[in-house]
Specification:
With about 140 residues, this protein is mainly beta. The chain is built from two helices and ten strands. Strand 6 and strand 7 form a beta hairpin.
Length: about 140
Amino acid sequence: MKIDKKIIKELTEYLDEFKLTELEYTVKDTKIKVSKNSISVNSQSFPSPNLVSSSKPDANISDDIISGIEIKSPIIGTAYHAPEPGAKKFVEVGKKIKKGDTVMIVEAMKTMNHVPSTSNGVVKKILVNDGQPVEFGQVLIILE
């Protein structure tokens, strides 16, 4: 089996572009997994223990927890609020939507993937900006 080095290079570039640590690509019987150690992108020496212990993980999101029905990204990619630049957005805060309605598009590898609503509701909060990279399972929208 011959592996195309171009695909590996492209996947490695996606790691940097979308700030990922791991990415998996599968076609038929071939599975390619690329990952990088987050420590290796830092300077040659490891951070001192004082710097690590003084950081506060998730300090920004602890006060911003919102309850409701979560609509999550089905894939890694770039989220778009409208079908094309300048077009009307799929949803806005306060809009009533039905199960199956498109709430956003997530573009991955030049393919536009429509994200459907998983239930009926009213849009309570949109958690990602237009053109923002998103992870698999990341919450995009919260419904009431």
